[in-house]
């Protein structure tokens, strides 16, 4: 059974995905999580604490579903690991839909919220660095600045494709095909530099 704080964070991700950051009310969150508002304040102090920890929860959950492997399977090649890290963000599962929707809502709210903007910038930077490291494993001769730029383009594209897919603008298979093509293009470009 999940801890109470995890239970609250799961509920917060659901509420943010459905109603956005502005629609997050502690009373509704308490009802969604099946806990008291006092318990939420005990664990998270205030609304900012809830948002910060929900962002961290979403990042950790995304890392789990993009890196989990069958323990009996052979280790993935660097290219397979890169593909999985990016393409598993485009899965038609409740968890991925919820995570991606909540991430988009947090990003949109960060436009007007300086504290959230800083937290989101740090989380995004970590994601870009992780993707740059994976790109570097596939193209080890590429410069650090080229890897960082390629990772920035890929993660930005992935966010855009995810939002288009979630909002019904494109089908998931098309989003995945576009992402595969972008990965191929970035790796080819890195190989020429």
TrEMBL record:
Domain HTH tetR-type: 2-62
InterPro entries given in the database record: BetI_C, Homeodomain-like_sf, HTH-type_TetR-like_transc_reg, HTH_TetR, Tet_transcr_reg_TetR-rel_C_sf
UniProt keyword list: DNA-binding, Repressor, Transcription, Transcription regulation
Superkingdom of origin organism: Bacteria
Coiled-coil ranges per UniProt: none
DNA-binding region: 25-44
Signal peptide region: none
Cited PANTHER family: HTH-TYPE TRANSCRIPTIONAL REGULATOR BETI, HTH-TYPE TRANSCRIPTIONAL REGULATOR RUTR
Name of the protein in question: TetR/AcrR family transcriptional regulator
